[in-house]
Amino acid sequence: MTTSWLVTGAHGLLGQDVLAELAGDPDAVVTGLGRDQLDITDPAAARAAVAGHGVVVNCAAWTDVDGAERSESAATAVNGTGVRHLARACADSGALLLHISTDYVLPGDSRRPYPEDAPTGPVNAYGRSKLAGERAVVELLPRVGYIVRTAWLYGAHGPNFVTTMLELAARRETLDVVADQHGQPTWSRALARQLAALGRAALAGRAPAGIYHGTAAGHTTWCGLARETFRLSGLDAERIRPVGSDKFPRPATRPAFGVLGHGNWLRAGLAPLPRWDDQLTAALKTPAFAALAAAARTDSGRLTT
């Protein structure tokens, strides 16, 4: 049976991978709308966009964490009120909503992975804005609202940490990278596959509504991620030097421990995402990352000659 899918934020890092993933599904008719085509803070526009679709994947978001600290009301307009408009439109039309959220809704002071039902407690404005969106989905779509929290996302279609490390490898002999924040680096292509699978399971009535943690298994630090990126790219991992967060003061506080548990995937009959290092290995073999790594190796050689 054919189902119409709407992907918002379709021009972003995750949105482009979701579109690519759904393009291979013969039972999916897909519409992708970027920020220039759909302003989710406009309730009438959100209602018109959602009409006629069976599944909405909301990748639209304010993602500037430090910018949110300076303009919390603007961030909340997108991440909170805009999500409420989409959820209301889905409630009115009968569509399922898969909404992308973040580990930043949690306090980050644990030492064990946070389960899906852990108490929230954001430590910055971005987290508060995203929590407002989660609450709107729970309130308006208790039976067909799916909140998928992700973290440390990287991919081929937008700025991200892995790309930055490979670009800097070509220009600097050593890099200082934070080693006291723990998280789960997650490849956007792997998350896109998981979202498509969750949507299909939801349509089939196999996946209960609620919160799912769309992050890689295992965890590391930013320093660990940088070193593994270098190692897998044929670069000297010892060029990465561990430092504390105090070396890079930022307007927004970052959670020290953003590691999430994945128990709810089993309820939907789906396996959680693979380990972070396995995802990274696969990602770095794709053409976009392989080209960056090759350039980094070439330019790194010039740094030492």
In brief:
With 305 residues, the protein is α/β, with parallel strands linked by helices.
Description:
With 305 residues, this protein is α/β, with parallel strands linked by helices. The protein has a domain at 3-159 and 186-218 and 258-274: Rossmann fold, CATH 3.40.50. The radius of gyration is 19 Å and the shape is globular. Strands 2-1-3-4-5-10 form a 6-stranded parallel sheet, with helices on both faces. Strands 6-9 form a two-stranded parallel ribbon. Helix 1 (13-23) links the parallel strand 1 and strand 2. The protein has helices spanning 13-23, 43-50, 65-70, 72-93, 125-140, 161-169, 188-203, 222-232, 264-267, 276-283, 287-303, and strands spanning 3-8, 28-33, 55-58, 96-102, 145-150, 153-154, 175-178, 182-183, 186-187, 210-213, 220-221, 240-243.
